[in-house]
From TrEMBL:
Taxonomic superkingdom: Bacteria
Alphabetized UniProt keyword annotations: Transferase
Source organism of this protein record: Flavimaribacter sediminis
SUPFAM superfamilies: CoA-transferase family III (CaiB/BaiF) (SSF89796)
Record-given protein name: CoA transferase
Phylogenetic classification of the source organism: Bacteria, Pseudomonadati, Pseudomonadota, Alphaproteobacteria, Hyphomicrobiales
GO terms, molecular function: CoA-transferase activity
Length: 402
């Protein structure tokens, strides 16, 4: 079978960023063929190395091993003239730069977008920051939790009348911004190849969160409606939420149409409830959501989660166990879809990490290595890519640049 090149084969990415958002965009590029050079401070490296669950056998956490995938590690102190000079030489032979410093920081060091564009006019630069490169809040620091709050998601999360809660992963905005960042890179490279111009991608951490808030904006503008915390359900459909089964497990059921509700009624042995004169119409169910949810809850209380899944599947009712990671690990569907893959680590042995998304039939992505040791590729990059000799590399180390 003919092996096609990966979509980003031949693309070189310089990842100057820290933690998750912009580095995640670089990781996605690496999964689909790009050469990714992670540039880290010589002393401590990316703070992500110390974030999350300690691995125990290495100085790096499992978060770093998973999210630092498919990268080479080059140590470079960008604050030094020597380090900035090396970066500029790398930019001349690269395609993409990813960064997430506070706006103005790289400019202060003489390596902002305009500085690098002068070296490589075809350069694509991804800049992810808390509040973007422009606007009255652009200089403020932002993390994912701040993005969830500012972007409107945290306000929606929790039980009615209760406090706003963490929307699942505290790093959700980082990952979503990374996906949008990767999309921006691909779009900009498409334009570069077509029109021979580079450009800057300006992405605020809160913007992907705000972009995913359904119809909240036009609804508020039209009638002043402010959606609040909805707990286990939603105001858009009913029954559409999480329910407790008789064996103490939670399942999710989604009925976004009258036809789906009709199928659920058959599964419950209550077909009469789907009559339009009773609960067969969506607006009626939404107006009587407490009653409808209680009917479903009473039904599920009399069976195990496995029984509920079987019955719902038999009637084509959308239903899933609310999975913990323990449920996911070993699940045959996750395995069949290669949703997680196992790589070998010299000290830890087998380390499973999330797989590549999306699945391309002809040019699939892959994970070549876990997060690298700090500076493990410094000599390789400096000698093979820039042609520096041992004495020059030693001089850079003596100057604290590498």
């Amino acid at each position: 079978m003919t092996r096609h090149k990966k979509p980003l084969d031949g693309i070189r990415v310089l990842d100057l960023a820290t933690f998750i958002a912009a580095p995640f965009a670089a990781s996605i590029a690496g999964e689909f063929g790009a050469e990714v050079i992670k540039i880290e401070h010589p002393d401590k490296g990316d703070p992500l190395r110390n974030f999350g669950t300690p691995s125990g056998e290495t100085p790096d956490t499992f978060c770093w091993l998973s999210e630092g995938r498919n990268k080479k590690s080059l140590t470079l102190n960008l604050k030094t003239p020597e380090g900035a000079a090396i970066l500029k030489r790398l930019v001349a032979v690269s395609d993409v730069v990813c960064e997430n410093f506070r706006p103005g920081t790289l400019e202060k060091w003489g390596i902002g977008y305009e500085d690098l564009k002068a070296i490589n006019p075809r350069l694509v630069m991804l800049r992810i920051s808390g509040f973007g490169q422009t606007g009255p809040l652009s200089e403020r620091t932002g993390f994912a939790r701040i993005a969830h709050a500012f972007g409107g998601l945290a306000y929606l999360t929790g039980m009615p009348g209760g406090p706003p809660l963490t929307p699942g992963s505290t790093s959700l905005a980082d990952y979503v911004s990374g996906v949008y960042g990767a999309l921006g890179i691909v779009l900009a490279l498409r334009v570069r190849d077509r029109d021979q111009i580079g450009q800057c991608i300006d992405l605020a951490l809160y913007e992907p969160i705000f972009r995913m808030l359904d119809d909240l904006l036009p609804a508020y503008a039209a009638n002043g409606a402010v959606r609040g915390r909805q707990g286990l359900g939603t105001s858009n459909a009913c029954p559409h939420g999480h329910f407790l089964t008789g064996d103490g497990r939670w399942v999710a059921i989604a009925c976004t149409s009258d036809r789906m509700f009709e199928r659920l009624c058959k599964a419950m042995g209550r077909p009469e409830l789907s009559d339009p004169e009773q609960l067969g119409r969506g607006p009626v169910r939404i107006s009587r959501h407490e009653e409808v949810d209680q009917i479903v809850q009473d039904w599920l209380s009399g069976m195990t989660a496995d029984e509920a899944l079987t019955i719902c599947a038999s009637q084509d009712v959308p239903c899933s166990l609310v999975n913990s990671i323990a449920d996911i690990f070993g699940d045959p569907h996750f395995e069949a879809r290669n949703n997680y893959v196992t790589l070998k680590h010299d000290a830890l042995g087998a380390v499973p990490v999330p797989g590549v998304v999306p699945h391309l039939t002809e040019t699939p992505g892959e994970i070549s290595n876990l997060g690298p040791e700090l500076g493990c590729s410094s000599d390789e990059v400096l000698s093979e890519l820039l042609g520096l000799g041992p004495d020059e590399i030693a001089s850079l180390r003596a100057a604290g640049a590498v």
